[in-house]
Automatic annotation (TrEMBL), chain A:
Protein name: Xanthine dehydrogenase family protein molybdopterin-binding subunit
Any one Gene Ontology molecular-function term assigned to this protein's record: iron ion binding
Pfam families: Ald_Xan_dh_C, MoCoBD_1, MoCoBD_2
Coiled coil: none
Keyword Oxidoreductase (UniProt): yes
Automatic annotation (TrEMBL), chain B:
The entry's keywords: FAD, Flavoprotein, Oxidoreductase
A matching Pfam family: FAD_binding_5
Record protein name field: Xanthine dehydrogenase family protein subunit M
Native source species: Antarcticimicrobium luteum
Positions of the FAD-binding PCMH-type domain: 1-167
Matching PANTHER family: XANTHINE DEHYDROGENASE SUBUNIT C-RELATED (PTHR42659)
Amino acid sequence: MPKDHGIGASPKRREDVRFLSGTGNYTDDINLRGQAYVHFLRSDVAHGRINGIDTAAAAAMPGVLRIFTGADFEGVGGLPCGWQVTDKHGQPMQEPGHPVLAQGKVRHVGDPIAAVVAETAAQARDAAEAIELDIEELPAVVDMKAALQEGAPKVHDDLTSNLCYDWGFVEENKGAVEEAFQKAAHVTTLELINNRLVANPMEPRVAVGDFNRASGDSTLYTTSQNPHVIRLLMGAFVLGIPEHKLRVVAPDVGGGFGTKIFHYAEEAFCTFAAKALNRPVKWTASRSEAFISDAHGRDHVTKIQLALDADNNFTALRTDTYANMGAYLSTFAPSVPTWLHGTLMAGNYRTPLIYVNVKAVFTNTVPVDAYRGAGRPEATYQLERVIDKAARELGVDPIALRRQNFITEFPYATPVAVEYDTGDYNATMDKLEEIGDLAGFAARRRESEARGMLRGLGVNCYIEACGIAPSNLVGQLGARAGLYESATVRVNATGGLVVMTGSHSHGQGHETSFPQVIAEMIGIDESMVEIVHGDTANTPMGMGTYGSRSLAVGGSAMVRATEKIIAKAKKIAAHLMEAAEADIELKDGAFSVAGTDKSVAWGDVCLAAYVPHNYPLEEIEPGLEETAFYDPSNFTYPAGAYACEVEVDPETGKVTIERFAAADDFGNVVNPMIVSGQVHGGLAQGIGQALLEGAVYDENGQLLNASYMDYAMPRASDVPFYTVDHSCVTPCTHNPLGVKGCGEAGAIGSPPAVVNAVVDALQSAGRDVTHIDMPLSPSRVWQAMHG
Amino acid sequence: MYNFEFERPASLADAVAALGAEEAQALGGGQTLIPTLKQRLASPAKLVSLTGIAEMQGVSAAGSSVTIGGATTHATVAAEAAGAYPALAALAGNIGDPAVRNRGTIGGSLANNDPSACYPAAALGSGATIVTNAREIAADDYFQGMFTTALDEGEIITEVRFPVPEAASYQKFEQPASRFALVGVFAAKYADGVRVAVTGASEEGVFRWSEAEAALNHDFRTDALMDLDINPANMIGDMHGSKAYRAHLVKVMTKRAVAAML
């Protein structure tokens, strides 16, 4: 019998009432008195020298308040990068400046050159068209390998080359890995591209800057996944505003998927301009603008090699990856192809020796940063594709080859620096075989073939590192921030609770699932708990939501704060019942004295805390409010096994996903319905990457598919009804809830399943196709079949 | 978008008069024009909406033809032509999404003549007559290349007359992002012969595949197409498909259209 409340129940999402009834409060819904509007004039060339910007005619146009250019930001800091990677020689990465508005050069199509602030958005746009630019177009570098050639045009003139860093991991393993490859009985090699994606959250980015002349306080309303991080980065590094004079509010946010983690120029601009003009300044991105100004994701070019011994045991793995940084370093860009990617290359397998090389490259393209999964999808894709290829080359069953090499004992220290605390990869594979009815595949393939269609089955595993992260560890790895999370639990006099968290909900359902945890701990109804988030003025310093960390890290902070609340409440209850504190038990929302029938209700204890007439004032303070900061001791390691079944139309190359099964181990699950929804969304994005999506630049650095006419987002009819299961549970051993995180799994685990399935389908028809790069559009599949 | 004047006349005569103004532009359902205006890629001084003219609305069937008012939406055609000309109704019912189908009009689509639109294939494949405020134009004379038609400045498509075939089928292979036709083939069998019109594929817009028509007139079976190939030279080649792929799809979609009619 499923629970109907508390941890493990699936109450409907309370936030959906406002989201589905049009009563949400998104940043674009915020309109302040006297608000002006900014329009950014963006570069339409990928690389050029700015010889002149004539704003005279534009400044005289109706409604124009002021036109800003890079010169106005010369005394202002640039956008900072939050992670410094050290290269294989121990040198820090090359770190270029990133001005709020372009200075000297433009470096990608979409780079902001000037900002027009006017009374209306239309007037700002009209005036922007009247700005006369003198830009000398320079040759662009788009292809990463070409960008590293001697004599290639430099994106940043003050750097020695377009190489950001050349990272080796683990450098000390390199020799042993080479040796293992020389001894290998079999080596499988695969070259592949992890396609560049545009996140495309439904809500485009918006920023509203405000300045209070009387108090000197600045406020930024923004579409962010982590308002405290924006406050820290923008306040400390760009504009020089201390935290107590700067408030950042991220109200309802319509999807982030990573692309709203980062601090963007438009946020700094609106905050800066509001003060300069003493008026609120608003910017709302158009969808076209989003394509050329939101950080993109992925964009790796990789060669991976797997060595096996004569018994098909994995003996070594090595990879060479080129990772596109784009034109500037976005906030966490350097960490994605390194610490979020190299550390996952062991996957679910006992490969004893691993060496990962990553060259991060500047190009004249939109900056690339974390996108749902961030590094882990790139790791999983190449690993699970090369294993599939190895199984085919060796003529062994791909599931059996995986099972043979699974890690089965925990904790397990990988050769790439992380320690998996728990897991049971055979259990999720067993579950997958059951829920995916893999035994029935052969019959389904015959049925497809009878209709002239090719059917393929693709299976793979994944592991991810979530719950980012132990602060002391990431500090050693180059993070310029801590990665704890915070919660303040405020109990009101009549027993209701408000929880102020640094985690941010932008679709994850925190307002529903977090109260389930607290209600369970106290034994009260979930409706007595309210979650407050997204405003630096009324929540404790937090690091925000990404990397599937909110429940594992933010939820743990909430548990710690609630534990403090319960400990104090027990003292009060002991006083009220004239009993020893050690004898007090809390159950079903009442405190009782063990072994007696004495009891006092939760609400009465709360009331006593705020109306302390009968209260141990000499021992404890009145009130019932506690804050906790939680810093995890390790990552969490969700893992699972996915199966995709496709049909390929041999005449057209069109791929249809017929079945998709996902068996995940997320540790303990608070709200199974929300978890299923998270997996569904991740799968849709992973299938989107595998079949549909992919930013295409031409050689001049123009983004060719910068609209939905050419950039294919997955629609409902592109995805099947999923079969998902998260009943395989190995609880995380190091956080109080035993949870691991579920937000990114679907997007990490699904691309290799889709590609493995298509290759399987083509091979079933005798086609000698071992790999097709994503997206597997009909034309690419057809080309591969007829190549 | 830039500012413009807006008129919504109630009669054809008023619409023609309004379109006589300097830099005036007719507005059908706006499914191409409005996004173009929002991108600031066009700046007409005046938009003349054709959606308020009663005589340009609706579907009527008489004898062996179906007549559709120029301002009739795709959704209306999908619903009201289903009995008289099912292949045409099915085509209309699969253009874009419900929002597009409830705004977009047949006249707007044919006047724009997007090389990947569906309706041009139906009009050419049916040998339809494009009726304007000034004259009647045979489909064979109407389509003159990508975004180019026989329409004069200010000329309005008032209705489109489709002769109803013995059998017809439209097979559309969708471009994954826009869901316009990457290749669409409309085949129709009339007493006096088979017509095969192809959209989405050619750099010159919708065209008749005369070799396929000849082969099918000789032998109306899919096997009749077996040895035919279309020259990829004039096909569109882009990120969604090479010239060779489109040429291949023309044949596959034609075969499927014929199979659906047998």
